[in-house]
């Protein structure tokens, strides 16, 4: 066997390994939900602002936390679900209780260049585990897009918009974390699952 053939075969194996690793990584970033559930018919796609919130299974009628923001905005955290893939998904409802349309602050997106280049999102959200002294940031896909609702520029007066954010899961023993979103008050939430 020539050295050229061996080097070519080695490059091919490395390329194949990287391709398989990326495919597994992208598959692992999905919500894992294979059900044929339809989105809530009460809100049009334009009201949802592009990305749709993931299904909010096992959600109680009472929010885990209610956080006040600017311009009459309220964020109600409805669930914080840990899944077997090592993720925590926060499902929430963003409501405009004000009398005028509320334009969302660009601060919600955060200040990381990779997230900012993907447009308006909730990429600035964090979970803080004060016992372990760790901060968890919104996950990103392989293209750097945040795994959160994107594209919501404003919320009309009286409207409610579903949103989600996905984070790496804290250790299994951690059940309470502080949820932080720029321009909103912080809140302590309980992780289920």
Automatic annotation (TrEMBL):
Residues 1-29 form the signal peptide. Keywords: Signal. Residues 31-67 are annotated as: Disordered. Residues 43-62 have a biased composition (Polar residues). This is Secreted protein. It comes from Streptomyces musisoli. The lineage of its organism: Bacteria, Bacillati, Actinomycetota, Actinomycetes, Kitasatosporales.
């Amino acid at each position: 066997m020539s050295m050229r053939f061996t080097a070519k075969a080695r490059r091919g194996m490395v390329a194949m390994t990287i391709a398989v690793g990326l495919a597994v990584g992208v598959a692992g970033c999905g919500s894992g939900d294979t059900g044929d559930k339809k989105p809530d018919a009460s809100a049009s796609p334009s009201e949802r602002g592009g990305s749709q919130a993931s299904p909010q299974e096992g959600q109680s009628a009472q929010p885990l936390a209610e956080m006040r923001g600017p311009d009459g905005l309220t964020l109600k955290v409805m669930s914080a679900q840990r899944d077997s893939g090592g993720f925590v998904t926060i499902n929430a409802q963003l409501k405009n209780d004000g009398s005028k349309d509320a334009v969302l602050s660009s601060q919600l997106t955060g200040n990381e260049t990779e997230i900012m280049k993907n447009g308006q999102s909730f990429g600035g959200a964090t979970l803080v585990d004060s016992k372990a002294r760790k901060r968890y940031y919104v996950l990103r896909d392989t293209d750097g897009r945040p795994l959160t609702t994107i594209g919501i520029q404003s919320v009309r007066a009286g409207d409610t918009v579903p949103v989600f954010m996905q984070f790496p899961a804290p250790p299994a023993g951690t059940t309470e974390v502080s949820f932080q979103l720029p321009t909103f008050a912080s809140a302590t939430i309980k992780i289920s699952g």
